[in-house]
Amino acid sequence: MKPFDPRLLRYASASRGTLAAGGLLAIVQTAAGLAFAWLVTQLIVRAIAGEDLTALSGLIAALVLVVIGRGVVLWLVDAVAARGGARVIGQLRERLMSAVATLGPGWTASRNSADVTLVAGRGMEALDGYFGKYLPQLIMTAVATPILVLVIGWQDLTSGIIILLTLPLIPLFMVLVGWATQAAQKRQWTALSTLSRGFLDVVGGLSTLKLFGRQHRQEGRIRSVSEDYRVHTMKVLRMSFLSGFVLELAASLSVALVAVTIGLRLVAGDMELSVGLFVLLLAPEAFLPLRNVGASYHAAAEGIEAAENAFAVIEAAENADATAPAPAEGGAPAEPGLAFAGVVVRYDGQPVVGPFTAVVAPGRLAVLSAPSGAGKSSLVSAALGFADAEGTIVAGRRSDAEGRRSAIAWAGQRPGLIAGTIASNVALGDPHPERTAVLDALHDAAAGELDPDASVDAGGAGLSGGQAQRVAVARALYRLRTRDCPVLILDEPTSALDAATESALMASLRRIADAGSAVLVVSHREAVVAAADVIFEVEAADRVR
Q1: Coil, strand, or helix at residue 357?
Q2: 390 Ramachandran zone, left/alpha/beta (phi>0; psi -120 to 50)
Q3: Which strands, in side-by-side order, build the sheet including 338-347?
Q4: Binning pLDDT at 50, 70 and 90, where does residue 261 land?
Q5: How far apart are CA 123 and CA 376, in angstroms?
Q6: In this predicted structure, which of 87-91, 238-242, 357-361, 420-424 has the lowest mean pLDDT?
Q7: C-alpha span between 52 and 506 (Å, rounded)
Q8: Residues near 515 by beta carbon (within 8 Å), at least 6 away in sequence
C-alpha cells in the first residue's frame, strides 16, 4: 500500500475525519514547537545579557504553558489516532465482509477459509499500528516539515539550504530500506498464511488422523511451519532496527552539519546568538517527523499488507457487480414468486447449466430434480446471486442479487452450524430472537424433539447428520416467517433423513406452500418428487427439458 492509499477514503469514510483532525492537530503541534523554540531562545539570550529572574518571569510562565499545551496536543494526537483508527478498521472490516458475502460461496470455496479469516481478523487488527503510529507521523511530516524548513530559511538562509540538501537523504534511505522490508514482510505474511492454513487443516482432519494413528506425524509439519514464520518475523525485526539506525545516523549527521556551520559563524561574529540558537533548536524538529515515519513504518507493515489483501477482495466484489449481466427483458412473474428465464450459469467462463426457464408461483411446491452434477445447486447459487448467470432471475419481484437474497429463505446442502445452542443456530442473524418462532420452525422442520437450549459445537458436532440438516431447514423456515420472505429454497433437505421424518418434513412444506409461499426443493428422491406440484428436470448445459 502507498504511504496513504486513497482507497481508504472510499472504503472507510471515517478516515476523512481522522485525516482532517490529524492535520489540524499537526498545525497546532507545529505552532507549539515554534513557540517553544522561540521562548527558550529568548530566555537563554536574555539571561546571558544579564536580565534578572523577575524580568524573565513572563517568559518562564509562557514556556510552562507551551510545554503543557504540547503535552495536551500529543495526548490528543494519540487519542484521535486510536479512536479514528478503530472506526476505520471497523468500517473496513464491515466492507470486507460485505464483499465476501457479495462474492458468495463460489468464491470462498476456491480459497482457503484461513486466508479470509486471517485478513478479517489479525490483519485488520494489525492496522492499529498504521493508524496509531504511522499515519499521525505521516501527517506531521506533510504539515510540520515544510513549515519548519521555511521558518529556518527565513531566519538563516544558509541553514535552510543545508537542510533542503540533506533532508532528501532520509526519504532515500527509507525507500532503500523499505524495499527490503516490504519483501521481508510479504514473506512473513505468506509464512503466517501457510501456518494458519496448515493448522486449520490439521484441526479439521484430527479425528481422521487419530483414527489411523497418524496424528503425531503432523507435529513435525506444524513445528517446521512455525519455525519458518519465526525466522521471517525475526528478519522483519532486524530490518526494523537497521532502518532505525540508518535514519538516526542520517538525521544526526545532517543536524550536526547545521550545528557546525552555526558554531563557526557565531565564533566569527557573522551571526547573532538569538538566530543561531533558534535555528539550532528547530533543526532536529525538521528531521524528526521523517525519522518517525521511517521508524513507525515497520510497526504498520503487517497491517499495510493486510489492507492490500482486503482491498483486493473489495475490488473483486465491485468488479463482480460491474460485470454482472443485465437482466433480460421479460420473465418476471406477476406474483411475488420465483422465476428463471433463459438462465445460463457459468464457472470460469464455461456454461455448466442452461438455458433454464421455470416459474414457481406462490402457493406451489416445485421440485428441481436431476442426477448429481447436473447443475441443480448451481441454479440455486445463481438465484442467490452467488454465481455468474446470464438471463433473468426474479424472486419476490426483485431481479437484482441483493433484492433476491432478501426475498429468499434458503438452506444449502451443508448445514453450516456454529458453536452455540440449537436456538441460536435457528435464529442466526436475528438480534432479537423470537422463542415461539424458533419452536415453530423446529416443529415444522420435523425436529420438534430437539431441545432448543441444547449446545452444538462448531460444524454441528453433537448432532447427527439428519438432525443438523433439520436445524438448517428450521433456520430457513425461521427466516421465511420473521422476515416475510415470499420464496423458500431447500437444497437436498432430506438426503440424510429416514422415510418417516422425510414424510413429516414434506407435509410441512406442503402446508407452507398452501399458505402462499413459493417453495422450490432441490432433490431427486422419490418421496420429494411425489409431493411436488411441478417438477423441473435438469440434465446438463444446453440439455434442459
Answers
A1: strand
A2: beta
A3: 350-360, 338-347, 389-395
A4: confident
A5: 37
A6: 238-242
A7: 99
A8: 363
